[in-house]
Write a structure and sequence with these properties.
Elements lengths: L1 H4 L9 H11 L9 H9 L12 H15 L15 E7 L3 E9 L7 E10 L2 H4 L3 H15 L1 H4 L5 E5 L4 H5 L8 H10 L4 E5 L7 H4 L26 E3 L11 H4 L22 H20 L3 H8 L8 H4 L14 H18 L13 H8 L2 E4 L2 E4 L6 E3 L2 H12 L7 H9 L2 E2 L3 H10 L2 H5 L20 E13 L2 E9 L5 E6 L4 H15 L4 E3 L3 H15 L5 E2 L8 H17 L7 H13 L10 H6 L6 H6 L13 H40 L14 E5 L15 E10 L5 E4 L15 E3 L12 H4 L4 H8 L25
Parallel strand pairs: 1-4, 4-5, 5-6, 9-10, 11-14, 14-15
Antiparallel strand pairs: 1-2, 2-3, 7-8, 8-9, 11-12, 12-13, 16-17, 16-19, 17-18
Helix pairs in contact: 3-4, 6-9, 17-18, 18-19, 21-22, 23-24
Protein name: Integrase catalytic domain-containing protein
GO cellular component, one term: nucleus
GO molecular function: catalytic activity; RNA binding
Length: 800
């Protein structure tokens, strides 16, 4: 009972300490008469939002409870003559090891008699142990301090809430080092059953959190010697609903991450701060480890030339030192930075209240300062096993550069994990996230693929828009190696022609054949731009046909014709019976079959859309189906013209109906696309002068793309054309030749503010006339039928 007797209030006494005291005394509440009434002055201080005011009433109540515990009828010495369990309950925190010994009653198994209580304070080095190592150390110390009470007990039960003990004791030879193995051997000298209980109901928890008292003696030295053991006597769990202890394999790498007792204190050299020295030493140790495991001398030589730390001038030379921008930081972080010098000063003399701290807030100030300590002129923050060095503001950019740039440009989470094991400052996570987000190299390699807001484009009429491409055919047939293949954007009517050469004249002749039957198209969508540009130039030169627009290159914009490539090839293979060198003679039949095949999106065939009648095939004539309707007799000229006029009127209505159906399908697709990508669609709407990155689509299909930049930049937004694409310029004012499609442009996060001229026209290297021409362009650079929302064709804003 000496532990309870020495329990006193101190200036740092607070609600947390009071709860630990109550948790220990509460173990005896059934043996203390009028416990609730006697403990009321103390318990009311622990209620929510109750002011903590320790006075004479509370002091008397504490002394009264101490006397009640010392005189409790449940206290008695152990009786080794009765065959009942003797229980050692142990709990270890970062403050102390708490334990008590009790014995089960011989007649009533639910009644326990208490014999001894104890609380052993941990040294600063022991307090920094990992949780598994600390729990094992606490059990060993508790057994060692009570060895004269417990050694030889055949019904000893060790009760603990630690999840790691069972796994370590069942694997005594697999500890990470000799120290851990010696501790396990010392524990297994005792013959006991391990019993796991829930931490929230564990009475020893309060003793393990008892702060050091003035009358506490220094810990006595203890012996590590041990003899042979028989292992665990058994394992039990009183409450089956409690979580099971962890398996040894789940945590064995976390027992001792720094090698047992091996702790190295690094002292800075002259002119160097401690935090930089610690980081440098750890990086050097990492490098030497890599050098030892490497077997190739050339690889070792390469490692020697790698700079593992940034240049020291970045933290000592004001001219090249990286600026630490505090304007972007949170208010609470800036205020915390202002308090850090006061905390350091107060820790040097904590007996007086610092200036500017209200007496009502002094308890809060003490609690905040308790998370820090000062050593050798440096401020440290208590955190787990190893304290963190508090980094000064002028060195934080250097630390982030050393942890991010010099260690492979890892992400924000990995960089935070690396730094927080060693250093701390207010809002470290936010600073690292900003640093990684504004890293130029990381932005060039980002995997971000932008999804833009879609809208339904205009639905063209018959053959106003032609999707075209050239198929390479193997083997050649009748000297033809290619098929030029085109589809009407509205009806999906197929046009095609075998070609001997893929050149502008051959494609131009094919386009002329389409124009003479369906009229001149206004746009050709293709990903084979140069050949079709030569074809349109040939048409203009030979026949004077002008105004056909070739769409800008977009590998994803021509699926309307590229997907049917497979169908054409498949039908040719089947039609030839495997004799693929004969495909030239079967191509017209395949093309006709494709035209009269119904499409799901329409419910009818392209032939029906264009002619307003079902196609008549040889089978209809042979079987005399209802599609073949011979005239009843001779028709007059007026009757024949009337039937033709009626068919033409019906055809016009049919084409309009198909346009409405296609338009509705587009709207449904757009609505579905918006619903599926509601969380990822972004419309940045960049303004003139914004800094951006442009997606490097030129390397996306190359075989060596993995080691190239995914984005290019930074670039400056000059303007936006009528089609929604961005006109961009290099940082020296050189304007890119082609506008960049909106889905290729993302924001560039600049670490420092870049000043640009107020008048962007003075900055770019292009004439006003040429820039106006680029603005008037309708090129959108989009995918399939999607464009930008909110930019109608007749009222686009080109001021930006």
């Amino acid at each position: 009972m000496e532990v309870m007797k020495r329990y006193q209030t101190t200036p740092e006494f607070e609600v947390g300490h009071l709860c630990t005291y109550e948790g220990t005394v509460g173990t005896f509440r059934i043996f203390i008469q009028n416990y609730a009434k006697r403990a009321e002055p103390i318990q009311k201080l622990t209620r929510k939002e109750a002011p903590f005011k320790w006075g004479e009433e509370q002091e008397k109540a504490m002394e009264d409870l101490k006397d009640a515990v010392r005189n409790a009828p449940c206290l008695r010495s152990l009786d080794y003559n009765i065959d009942t369990d003797i229980k050692l309950s142990v709990d270890t925190s970062y403050i102390a090891i708490g334990w008590y010994i009790s014995q089960q009653d011989a007649e009533d198994a639910k009644k326990w008699w208490y014999a001894r209580f104890g609380s052993t304070l941990l040294s600063p080095r022991e307090a920094r142990y990992s949780q598994p190592k600390r729990e094992l150390f606490g059990l060993m110390r508790a057994l060692d301090e009570n060895k004269y009470w417990l050694i030889g007990c055949r019904r000893l039960v060790v009760e603990t809430d630690a999840q790691y003990i069972k796994g370590m004791l069942n694997n005594p030879e697999e500890g990470p080092n000799a120290t851990i193995n010696r501790w396990i051997e010392a524990i297994l000298m005792y013959h006991f059953e391990l019993r796991h209980v829930a931490g929230k109901t564990f009475a020893a928890d309060g003793l393990s959190r008892r702060v050091r008292q003035a009358e506490d003696p220094d810990p006595e030295p203890w012996d590590h010697s041990y003899e042979d053991h028989d292992g665990l006597r058994g394992y039990s769990k009183p409450n089956s609903e409690d979580a099971d202890p962890l398996d040894f394999e789940d945590f064995k790498r976390d027992i001792d991450t720094r090698g047992g007792y091996l702790l190295t204190e690094v002292k800075p050299s002259e002119g160097e701060t401690l935090e930089e020295n610690v980081l440098e030493q750890e990086l050097k140790a990492l490098w030497f480890l890599e050098k030892q495991v490497s077997e190739v001398a050339e690889v070792q030589k390469q490692y020697v030339n790698v700079e593992m730390l940034p240049d020291d001038a970045l933290k000592t030379d004001p001219e090249v030192e990286i600026e630490y921008d505090e304007g972007r930081r949170a208010n609470w972080a800036r205020k915390f930075d202002e308090r850090l010098p006061k905390i350091k000063l107060w820790l040097q003399g904590p007996l007086t209240r610092p200036e500017g701290v209200d007496p009502k807030d002094f308890g809060k100030w003490v609690r905040e300062c308790s998370h820090f300590f000062e050593k050798d002129g440096k401020l440290y923050r208590r955190q787990g096993e190893f304290p963190q060095i508090v980094v000064q503001k002028q060195h934080r950019m250097y630390m982030m550069r050393a942890a991010h740039d010099a260690l492979g440009h890892r992400g924000a989470w990995a960089t935070v994990q690396f730094l927080t094991k060693r250093f701390w400052w207010p809002d470290l996570e936010g600073d690292v996230a900003w640093y990684c987000r504004t890293c130029h190299v990381c932005q060039l390699r980002t995997k971000m693929l932008l999804k833009i807001p879609p809208k339904v484009t205009e639905t063209p009429s018959v053959f106003q828009v032609l999707h075209a491409d050239v198929m390479h055919m193997t083997p050649a047939s009748n000297g033809c190696k290619y098929i030029v293949h085109g589809r009407c954007a509205l009806t999906s009517w197929a046009e095609g022609k075998p070609l001997r050469e893929d050149n502008g004249v051959s494609i131009g002749a094919w386009l002329l054949d389409i124009i003479t039957r369906w009229g001149c198209m206004r746009e050709i969508v293709t990903d084979n731009g140069p050949s079709f540009e030569k074809a349109t130039a040939w048409l203009q030169k030979k026949y004077g046909i002008k105004g056909i627009k070739i769409s800008p290159y977009n590998s994803q914009a021509n699926g309307r014709v590229e997907r049917p490539h497979y169908d054409i090839r498949d039908m040719l293979f089947k039609a030839t019976g495997g004799k693929t060198h004969q495909w030239f003679w079967y191509f017209p039949h395949v093309l006709w079959a494709d035209r009269i095949t119904a499409r799901k999106r329409f419910g009818v065939s392209p032939f029906f859309i264009l002619t307003g009648a079902e196609p008549v095939v040889p089978l209809d004539i042979q079987e005399a189906t209802w599609l073949v309707e011979p005239p009843n007799g001779p028709l007059t000229t007026a009757e024949l013209i009337g039937q033709r006029a009626k068919a033409l009127a019906k055809h016009r209505d049919l084409v309009e109906e198909m346009r409405k159906k296609v338009d509705k399908e587009k709207r449904d697709r757009v609505a579905k696309y918006e619903e599926e990508n509601a969380a990822t669609i972004k419309d940045y709407r960049f303004k003139r002068g914004d800094l951006v990155l442009m997606r490097n689509t030129a390397i996306e299909k190359s075989l060596n793309k993995k080691m190239k930049s995914r984005y290019l930049g930074p670039l400056v937004v000059v303007s936006r054309n009528r089609g929604g694409a961005y006109i961009l310029a290099e940082m020296d004012g050189t304007v890119l030749q082609w506008p960049a499609a909106a889905f290729r442009v993302i924001p560039y996060q600049a670490r420092r503010k870049i000043e640009l001229p107020p008048n962007i026209h003075e900055f770019v290297d292009i004439s006003s006339k040429a820039l106006s021409k680029m603005r008037e362009s309708s090129e959108e650079g989009i995918v399939d039928d999607f464009a930008f929302r909110g930019m109608p064709e007749t009222s686009r804003n080109t001021s930006d």
